[in-house]
Design goal:
The protein has about 325 residues and is an alpha+beta fold. The chain contains ten helices and twelve strands.
Length: about 325
């Protein structure tokens, strides 16, 4: 490795070297698009970059920023969280990396940044404040969220998929331990849906499935979850059922909603469904078992002539 020798007049902390450092710092902060700041031990701004001003306080000068705090630009909650981070850095001397949603009046909604925060030290190594550099990671966060959504949602209907349903059902059963009550799983299967695909094509079939999902969502309560398990199978999970909540009425409403005509190429297309219902109040019941019970009695509804519902009876 080639060792770079400083100019003799800069071999020690000479006045020329200090001036050079200040000049470089001034040029860097006044021109860079990077979002950077320096603060004292009380989290008051010492210096900020041009990028910070553009993102947070357009039109302000550095002189107008110096001495102010995050509470002058952000909400109390955001400023308090930032102050806590910086005090932790001052106490421990350790850097931190945080990913936060940008909270400014001048930035576009939904923007995210990753901020690396470090201790600011003087020549003797004493911590005299903090400084940080932020990078825009909105594209990365959006990509991560898209992957999570894809992993937990059905691509045709946009509803929750089996994995998301089973996770929610497990949570609902655990909640019964803290607050006794009832929940219900309604297994909804479309009748003769193969005929729709064979007659109108799979594109039309997917449109009908999407419309069924939309209707089930509208017919359900806000706290309920509607999922598509695959094919023409849907599940509606009804949590926190009261004593007066009759799941039979819910099933009847679902059947009437699904049965309403669908318009395709000017023609009315009618689809019916069969529904199996399993009700649980025992928090120890297995989620898979509950869905399987609802599936079993759904087939009893099929055998009974379709376009009807059946309720699972443990006896």
């Amino acid at each position: 490795m080639v060792k770079t020798e400083l100019h003799p007049q800069w071999s020690q902390e000479s006045e020329a070297l200090r001036d050079l450092k200040l000049t470089c710092m001034d040029n860097l902060l006044s021109t860079t698009d990077a979002i950077a700041y320096f603060k004292d031990r009380l989290s008051r701004f010492l210096l900020v970059s041009a990028g910070w001003i553009a993102a947070v306080a357009p039109g302000c000068t550095v002189e107008e920023i110096i001495g102010k705090m995050d509470s002058d630009f952000f909400s109390k909650e955001f400023a308090a969280a930032t102050f806590e981070d910086e005090q932790h850095i001052i106490r421990t001397g350790k850097s931190v990396v945080v990913k936060v949603k940008r909270e400014t009046l001048y930035d576009r909604a939904g923007a995210w940044v990753s901020v690396t925060k470090m201790p600011l030290r003087d020549k003797s190594g004493q911590i005299i404040g903090t400084f940080g550099i932020a990078n825009n990671v909105t594209a990365q966060v959006n990509a991560e969220n898209a992957l999570v959504h894809q992993a937990l949602h059905d691509p045709v209907t946009g509803l929750a998929n089996r994995a998301a349903l089973m996770d929610r059902l497990s949570q609902a059963l655990v909640a019964l331990e803290r607050r006794p009550g009832r929940l219900a799983v309604l297994f909804v299967d479309l009748d003769h849906f193969k005929d729709v695909n064979d007659t109108f094509g799979h594109d039309t079939g997917d449109q009908v499935l999407a419309e069924v999902g939309r209707r089930l969502s509208l017919l359900s309560r806000q706290a309920d979850i509607v999922a598509r398990l695959g094919g023409d199978e849907f599940v509606v999970l009804c949590e926190s059922l009261g004593d007066n909540d009759d799941v039979r009425l819910i099933a009847d409403r679902i059947m009437r909603g699904v049965r309403a005509p669908y318009v395709e190429d000017g023609r009315d297309l009618t689809v019916t469904c069969s529904v199996g219902i399993a009700v649980a109040s025992d928090p120890l019941v297995e989620p898979d078992r509950l869905v399987r019970d609802a599936d079993d009695v759904m087939y009893e509804a099929k055998k009974a002539g379709r376009n009807c519902y059946r309720v699972y009876d443990p006896a």
